[in-house]
Amino acid sequence: MIVRLVAAVVFTAALAVSPALAQDGRVTATSRAPFPKVAEALEKAVTDHKMAVVCHANAQRGAAGRGVTIKGNQVLMVFRNDFAVRLLAADPQAGFEAPIRIYVYENADGTATVSYAPPSAVFAPYKHPAVKAIAAELDPIFKAIVGAALAVR
């Protein structure tokens, strides 16, 4: 019970770091932790919440391969096959939107900013009730993933 209470407090505090909802529906928050820790915590949170990193674009690693140094910059594309199967059965056109992207980048002070569009915003153009239901299931999962990554210190 105590562990859950502490986890809930940490999660709430993490979301209070500096979340903002952009006009396009994206949620953006800045951590207090260094970029490498947040990026690592983000990948772990995806797994911990039983989702999968379908693709991982790491601009920093790519630039380093060319001998160029840039600040941390990564995009994780996250989804899970059972959601994909249900989504495609409901509306094959909605498959264009999956996987959902989570963007993490390093700030000038070495902290990280994490940004993502909630599934309900991503799938809003699709009117099939099953697509709406899937988005509603995914929203709290993505919120928890990002919250866990921002909670790292």
In CATH, what is the homologous superfamily? TT1751-like domain
* Helical content class: 40-55%
Averaged pLDDT: 89
Q: If you compute it from the alpha carbons, what radius of gyration comes out, rounded to the nearest whole angstrom?
A: 16 Å
How many strands, what sense, and barrel or not for the largest sheet?
A: 6 strands, antiparallel
End-to-end Cα distance, whole Å, is: 23 Å
SSE class: alpha+beta
Q: Using DSSP, what is the number of strands?
A: 6
Number of contiguous helices: 6
> What's the shape?
globular
What oligomeric state do these chains adopt?
single chain
Number of domains: 1
Low-pLDDT runs: 1-18
Strand order of the largest sheet: 1-2-6-5-4-3
List the helices and strands and how they pair.
Layout: H1 2-15, E1 20-21, E2 27-34, H2 35-48, E3 52-58, H3 59-65, E4 73-79, H4 81-90, E5 100-106, E6 111-116, H5 119-122, H6 129-151
Antiparallel strand pairs: 1-2, 2-6, 3-4, 4-5, 5-6
Helix pairs in contact: 1-6, 2-6, 4-6
Structure description:
The chain is an alpha+beta fold and 153 residues long. It has a single domain (2-151), classed as TT1751-like domain (TATA-Binding Protein, 2-Layer Sandwich), CATH 3.30.310.70. Helices cover 47% and strands 24% of the residues. The chain has six helices and six strands. It has a six-stranded antiparallel beta sheet. A hairpin with a 5-residue loop joins strand 1 and strand 2 (27-34). The relative contact order is 0.22.
